[in-house]
């Protein structure tokens, strides 16, 4: 992972060596975000191309960490409330989650949840190939997809095992596509793996939304890539909470959503933004209470002051809040 690129403009670093398992090169640095306290982070670079960031402490003294933790000699962490994060197809999505976890988790002087972040470029490339294969108009001019489910699943299981062995007691995946394998990865897992769609559905249930049409249940719109829509996991989790899920019809997908994704592929941001607005308006006309945008790239298209943004839900936000809630509950019970 290119740390300079990740935190460019918002980090000052001081390096020193820390003991870690064989075949792993480990360095620790401090970074200071504009709105976050100084935080010590450890970067472990193993033989594989994956990278790991470990949030160690808010103390500059590695020997006086107070209630925070330091790695054991075997690389594990001395806390029962560490969050393990598995990065996916979008580095931006992972960093958006991490930024919000640190900022929101540190509000009112509270301690930010300790975390371990594992990001593997190989997994990201495989996921990207897999997702793009669902858009032939995008991929026929690029490389063909030769990645199957089992390759991605085995990679995910290795990441899960690595984080569990490293001390993580709760796992999260701030990537919509990764949740297609959530059930398989969770099978036999000793720690909870938060499901992004469940987090969103639970928050919407707690919001007690009122139906916009008499005699109907509350309706939730969903905009996502073709791969996410076909997987059906958002629909299932929302329906389990009693919501009616409204998807873009075929014409809306063909003339707005897919072209918006193609516009993003060409870096035509304004064109993609206008097409997304049309797709959202079409769903809102169908009396949906809110629209879930299950795509980090599409979520970022709408400016903060855009009125349509108030009618949209970013699942990453719900995942962050659920992660912090899990951490606080563990803290209170310990």
From TrEMBL:
The keyword Isomerase applies. PANTHER family: ASPARTATE-GLUTAMATE RACEMASE FAMILY, GLUTAMATE RACEMASE. It comes from Saponaria officinalis. GO terms for molecular function: amino-acid racemase activity. This is Aspartate racemase. Keywords: Isomerase. It holds the Pfam family Asp_Glu_race. The keyword DNA-binding does not apply. Signal peptide: none annotated. Coiled coil: none annotated.
